[in-house]
Inverse folding.
């Protein structure tokens, strides 16, 4: 599980059980949820239970896990329960057993064995027309996506006049506005805090963030969320460079295709065409390897060479990605000629020189505080720099020079000394035992933010699991 | 301000586990599978294995797999398929070349199946066709020549493939401009500093008696131990001392299922967790391990052996030709050691000695046995 899929996971967790059940009917969805949504240990548990004939008793599960990893186990089980993949069943008061969701288990088994006639992994089209090459698809995806990003960033950093071929669709603009990524005041586009978070993410995470906004607005457009989600998961399991027919898609999904091709996630030769191509943005939705990189230097050529073969794509991905070098004296060199990357960098860097394939500048207190005032956090800057570090930098551990990392944080902390966390304060516990028990549970879930033993108070980020736990305990008594 | 200290410097605590490479050595010894065909025929074993491979690939987006068949007279790549122009190199029974990523060449001829995840289809297709090819090419004379299997060759293939993949994954190599030799030299340090690839080997073994390959297998085990590659053993039939030692020495899983029909559940539960998950799981191990060695002269498993004091070769008999060690050629007179009955230390005494040894921080129980020529293990 990575940063990109964690926000998708958060979204998924909030869906009702009924939606989950409907989703899991499709083997491709079940497989995609398994592959990219579940934490690592949860996958292990699911796989162990997949071909088990009887429910997995809690005592067996305890025996299987080491004593010192109780916390990890609770976390994995809690995610599984929230996604309704696994449900706990109380046979007798002290005897709990876990059961795999029947639909999920069946679909995952079908996905692993390739059985059934669900046709959920996309029906390839048998066309005689000339196929679009992978290189072309990459270029298309990159152009569409960068256009959109540049639409967001360009005006803020004063590069609006530079022309990338501004043909961002009206639908996309509306979506960006409704997702609160940009704000339009007096006909001028300005980027918001969420927008910055969005721009600084890696490509894969960006796609997910945008799609989640899309999902949230799907009901308004008269689309069913389940349909949209299962189509997205299907897209993630398609093969790059292969043409697929739309004959098996539902009405909603055909409607979606139009929007998705505006983002560059799928390509259609015309809006009435009966086939579509997934681009790299789509095929990497449920995986991180070989994600499309947005550098106009050698990136696309190399990425185009690596098919979605599981083989070496990971290594190549990292090679084509990085372009930033930072020295301990805060100087920054970026091997790029892409306007978008330069625009993003200039959000928090004091750029001074530009060469045909290189820009250089310096991270200064002024530039960082300016970025912080715009709503960019230091951790966003650092994660962006880390993610795009030059291969030479990646040899270091930690990747960025520690002095630079600390200083960027210090600069930020100078401005803001209070950090808000939304959550719930729990107090007035009846007994010390009850309080300690709940603290331990909250800690094992990782939602505990603050506690005060003397006053028997604790503060948690999220309440759903805790309240479930409490009601379960009440039932026991 | 207090929030800033060196400990939270890792902004992106990457909780994503490193990609895991699973190298499977499948024992395809026809003699042994013939014995097993009533409970678990080879075909269903392979289909179970394919589901397991798919499960492994699904467990991590960057997970990789390599499958090697250890046949009676050679070790053969099943996946990835080696590239077609094979320079014929038949030495020591391992005739296949370096297992390069030949995935792209076979991508095109995989039938399109809308009910199957494409990545799975590619792997399955390659494995099935290669197994078929291997079985068809096996002649009767190959079968008659030996009843065992080339585990040693398959193990070395697996190890070399893993070493190559680890190099490919290390950040130094991805640059491509570095001198490959320098990368080779410090590959170990970079590999350990940042876990870029965790590998493990799974041996699905059906044949017993591998004593004739004692030396090469042991060497592979030590190589795996050094590289921290666990060797998991799934023993469907037969029993070998060697493989138990392999899993024990490398910290792998050893399992000898009582009911081979349930192969898939064994695989899913015990062998699927990778190194990251194993940290928090209780994994089955061999229990009592038989540490007996095989002698270098007749490849027999021995209870009492004679050890060359120079190169530590083990012999089952003191009657060496012209008193020279067979391995290193140094002078080695074992006759005198033999005439005096081997000094077997009584159990009680041994225990005492062990306690004393740990107290005085000497190398422990191995020392007293090593000093005398006869070894009792």
């Amino acid at each position: 599980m990575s940063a990109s899929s964690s926000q998708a996971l958060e979204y998924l967790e909030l869906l009702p059980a009924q939606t989950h059940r409907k989703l899991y009917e499709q083997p491709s969805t079940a497989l995609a949820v398994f592959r990219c949504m579940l934490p690592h240990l949860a996958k292990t548990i699911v796989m162990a239970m997949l071909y088990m004939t009887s429910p997995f008793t809690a005592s067996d599960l305890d025996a299987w896990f080491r004593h010192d990893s109780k916390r990890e186990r609770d976390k994995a089980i809690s995610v599984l329960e929230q996604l309704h993949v696994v449900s706990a069943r109380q046979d007798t008061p002290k005897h709990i057993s876990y059961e795999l969701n029947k639909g999920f288990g069946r679909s995952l088994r079908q996905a692993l064995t390739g059985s059934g006639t669900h046709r959920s992994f996309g029906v390839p089209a048998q066309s005689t027309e000339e196929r679009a090459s992978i290189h072309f698809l990459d270029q298309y995806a990159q152009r569409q996506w960068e256009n959109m990003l540049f639409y967001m960033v360009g005006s803020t950093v004063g590069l609006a006049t530079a022309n990338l071929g501004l043909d961002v669709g009206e639908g996309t603009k509306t979506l960006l506005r409704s997702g609160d990524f940009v704000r339009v005041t007096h006909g001028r586009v300005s980027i918001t805090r969420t927008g910055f978070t969005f721009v600084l993410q890696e490509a894969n995470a960006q796609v997910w963030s945008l799609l989640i906004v899309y999902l949230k607005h799907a009901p308004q457009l008269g689309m069913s969320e389940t349909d949209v989600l299962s189509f997205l998961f299907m897209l993630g399991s398609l093969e790059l460079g292969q043409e697929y027919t739309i004959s098996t898609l539902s009405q909603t999904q055909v409607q979606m295709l139009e929007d998705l091709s505006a983002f560059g996630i799928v390509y259609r030769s015309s809006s009435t065409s009966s086939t579509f191509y997934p681009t790299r943005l789509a095929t990497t939705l449920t995986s991180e390897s070989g994600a499309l990189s947005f550098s106009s230097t050698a990136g696309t050529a190399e990425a185009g060479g690596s098919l979605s073969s599981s083989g070496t794509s990971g290594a190549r991905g990292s090679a084509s990605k990085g372009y930033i070098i930072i020295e301990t004296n805060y100087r920054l060199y970026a091997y790029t000629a892409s306007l978008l990357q330069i625009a993003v960098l200039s959000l928090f860097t004091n750029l001074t020189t530009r060469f045909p394939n290189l820009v250089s500048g310096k991270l200064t207190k002024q530039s960082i505080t300016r970025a912080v005032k715009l709503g960019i956090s230091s951790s966003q800057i650092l994660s962006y720099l880390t993610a795009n570090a030059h291969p030479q930098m990646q040899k270091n551990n930690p990747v960025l020079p520690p002095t630079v990392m600390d200083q960027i944080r210090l600069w930020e902390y100078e401005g803001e000394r209070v950090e808000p966390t939304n959550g719930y304060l729990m107090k007035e516990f009846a007994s010390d035992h009850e309080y300690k028990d709940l603290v331990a549970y909250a800690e094992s879930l990782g939602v505990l933010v603050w506690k005060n033993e003397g006053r028997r108070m604790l503060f948690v980020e999220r309440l759903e699991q805790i309240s479930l736990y409490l009601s379960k305990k009440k039932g026991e008594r | 301000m207090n929030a800033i200290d060196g400990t939270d410097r890792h902004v992106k605590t990457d909780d994503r586990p490193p990609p895991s490479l699973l190298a499977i050595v499948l024992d395809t010894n026809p003699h042994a599978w013939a014995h097993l065909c009533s409970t678990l025929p080879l075909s269903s074993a392979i289909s179970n294995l394919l589901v397991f491979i798919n499960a492994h690939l699904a467990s991590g987006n960057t997970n990789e797999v390599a499958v090697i068949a250890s046949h009676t007279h050679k070790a053969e790549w099943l996946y990835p398929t080696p590239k077609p122009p094979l320079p014929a190199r038949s030495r020591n029974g391992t005739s296949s070349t370096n297992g390069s990523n030949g995935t792209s060449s076979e991508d095109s001829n995989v039938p399109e199946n809308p009910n199957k995840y494409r990545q799975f289809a590619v792997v399955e297709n390659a494995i099935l066709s290669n197994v078929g090819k291997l079985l068809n090419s096996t002649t009767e004379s190959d079968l008659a020549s030996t009843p065992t299997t080339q585990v040693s060759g398959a193990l070395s293939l697996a190890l070399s493939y893993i070493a190559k993949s680890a190099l490919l994954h290390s950040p130094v190599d991805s640059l491509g401009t570095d001198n490959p030799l320098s990368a080779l030299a410090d590959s170990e340090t970079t590999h350990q500093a940042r876990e870029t690839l965790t590998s493990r080997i799974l041996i699905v073994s059906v044949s017993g008696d591998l004593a004739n390959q004692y030396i090469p297998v042991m060497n592979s085990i030590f190589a795996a131990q050094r590289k921290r590659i666990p060797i998991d053993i799934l023993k469907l039939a037969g029993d070998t001392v060697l493989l138990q030692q392999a899993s024990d020495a490398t910290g792998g899983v050893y399992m000898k299922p009582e009911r081979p029909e349930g192969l898939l559940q064994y695989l899913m539960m015990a062998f699927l967790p990778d190194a990251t998950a194993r940290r928090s799981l209780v994994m089955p191990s061999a229990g009592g391990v038989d540490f007996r060695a095989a002698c270098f002269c007749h490849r027999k498993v021995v209870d009492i052996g004679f050890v060359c004091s120079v190169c530590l070769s083990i012999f089952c008999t003191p009657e060496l030709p012209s008193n020279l060690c067979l391995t290193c050629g140094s002078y080695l007179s074992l006759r005198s050691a033999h005439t005096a009955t081997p000094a077997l230390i009584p159990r009680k005494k041994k225990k005492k000695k062990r306690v004393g040894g740990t107290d005085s921080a000497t190398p422990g129980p191995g020392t007293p046995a090593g000093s005398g020529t006869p070894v009792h293990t």
Chain A is about 50% helix and 15% strand.
